[in-house]
Design a protein that fits this description.
CATH superfamily of one domain: NAD(P)-binding Rossmann-like Domain
CATH architecture of one domain: 3-Layer(aba) Sandwich
Number of strands: 12
Helix content: 40-55%
Shape: globular
Order of helices and strands: EHEHEHHEHEEHEEEHEEHEHH
Strand order of the largest sheet: 2-1-3-4-5-10
Structural class: alpha/beta
CATH class of one domain: Alpha Beta
Distance between the termini: 41 Å
Number of helices: 10
Largest sheet: 6 strands, parallel
């Protein structure tokens, strides 16, 4: 029987992965959060992996946030993500797990990557400055998976998802990403300020689609080279803001404050390798995903 250990399993993406695995016949799941094990502690991480008896590890745990949180915590974001990832990868290797799934970040791509982003471009430049420490930490962990495959035959894979959103997302204004931050602002303020010019573009992936990609890759993919996970389509922050405003039903004004950074100018992935390698294609359109996310917010947090 497959026993799956999911770090960050109590978080936003972790809950979706657990739902996806359970609905596809995986009953032996161990979902851990920061209260269960401090992944920054090498000995504690080693013991946790051994005691779990897991033969598959999915690493989702991360210290994350939006542009503001990244600017305020560059050292902490780089250190904690690098150390947590290194500890869980080494613990999984030494414990002899059969499969390791590393979930990285689109922030690892260079700031001016040609659109759509192709996996081979990931090493061709420095990430966007506001989230470079986080992106570089995740990029180093991707290389660690590849190096462990080369030296030890470690069966690890690297997935690179774009910005995710959906029910159970983090709506803390200090660390939330763009869609939950917008939803919260439209519910909180009559006049809404949005950071940047609105011209930057992003690609958004519904969390259940991402969870399905993780399961498919876990089952059918064994190459450590990175694979993009996304929808293959982008939208400007300006257009996104107006979409969210309409779904929420906000009637007040909104304005863009160009004194704040836009972040990376564009983000849109080439997702053809995920389809070829393990049959993944996103199925939830942005309009439908936003509607479901706002409905969940209304029922649980508004």
């Amino acid at each position: 029987m497959t026993r799956v250990l999911i770090t960050g399993g109590t978080g936003f993406l972790g809950k979706a992965v657990c739902r996806e695995l359970k609905s596809n016949g995986y009953s032996d799941l161990i979902a851990i959060g920061s209260r269960d094990c401090d992944l920054r502690d090498q000995d504690a991480t080693q013991k946790m992996v051994i005691d779990s008896g897991a033969n598959v590890v999915i690493h989702l745990a991360a210290t994350v946030g939006g542009i503001g949180a990244n600017k305020e915590n560059p050292g902490r974001f780089m250190y904690e993500n690098l150390v947590m990832g290194t500890n869980i990868i080494e613990a999984s290797r030494s414990a002899g797990v059969d499969k390791f799934v590393m979930v990285g970040t689109v922030c690892a791509y260079p700031k001016f990557t040609p659109v759509p982003f192709k996996e081979e471009d990931i090493w061709n430049g420095y990430p966007e400055e506001t989230n470079a420490p986080y992106g570089i930490a995740k990029k180093a962990l991707m290389q660690l998976i590849c190096s462990y495959k080369e030296q030890y035959g470690f069966n690890g894979i690297n997935l690179i998802p774009v910005n995710m959103y959906g029910p159970f997302d983090n709506f803390d204004p200090k660390i939330s990403h763009v869609i939950p931050a917008l939803i919260l602002k439209f519910y909180t303020f009559e006049e809404v300020e949005i950071w940047g010019t609105g011209s930057a573009s992003r690609e958004f992936l519904y969390v259940d689609d991402c969870a399905r990609a993780i399961r498919l890759a876990m089952e059918n993919h064994n190459d450590p080279n990175p694979i993009n996970i996304g929808t293959g389509s982008e939208i400007s922050i300006k257009d996104l803001a107006h979409k969210v405003k309409d779904v929420v039903g906000h009637t007040g004004p909104l304005y863009f404050n160009s004194s704040y950074p836009d972040g990376q100018p564009r983000r849109c992935l080439d997702t053809s390798k995920a389809k070829e390698a393990f049959g993944f294609e996103a199925t939830v359109p942005l309009d439908e995903g936003l509607r479901q996310t706002v409905e969940w917010f209304n029922s649980n947090l508004a």
